[in-house]
Write the structure tokens for this entry.
Amino acid sequence: MCRAGSIPGRTLGPMTTFATADRPDRAGLEEFLRPRHRAVLITRRGSGGLQSSPVTCGIDEAGRLVVATYPQRAKVANIRRDPAVSVCVLSDEFTGPYVHLDGAAEIVDLPEAVEPLVEYFRSVAGEHSDWDEYRAAMVRQGKCLIRVTIDRWGPVATGGFPPEQGRPDRG
């Protein structure tokens, strides 16, 4: 992030920030995603409209975006009908960097979902104090897992003034 004071000859204010858009390779994308767990998952409704769902997400060992949910949720029904999804992964700070992803989602149901749900928990929160209890809770709650194979992604971006507004020749 560039601060106005670091651009010679141009000052837009002490806290002015300029938009950025960096295009990571696959390894860089996964590095960006691993510590970020807030996202908006976008699926397509049966009517053709879009469904936006705030979710907590992680990245599994295969580099897929994973979300724990319930099979009764609209996002699950939408994915079963049309697996094409988009996801906007956000930083904890609203003004922090974010990235838009596109991919194909699949639903992993119980009992096959139990171990992937363990991996999901580890990717989001680390180790659990009692994995047997966690596994039993996932079964008792009837959870499922959304797994997104990422096909395309945009730049890792931040908001702010267009960078060209910070050029000295625009003063």
Q: What stands out?
A: Residues 1-11 have pLDDT under 50 and may be disordered. The chain has four helices and nine strands. The longest strand covers residues 99-108. Helices lie at 26-33, 74-81, 114-125, 131-141.
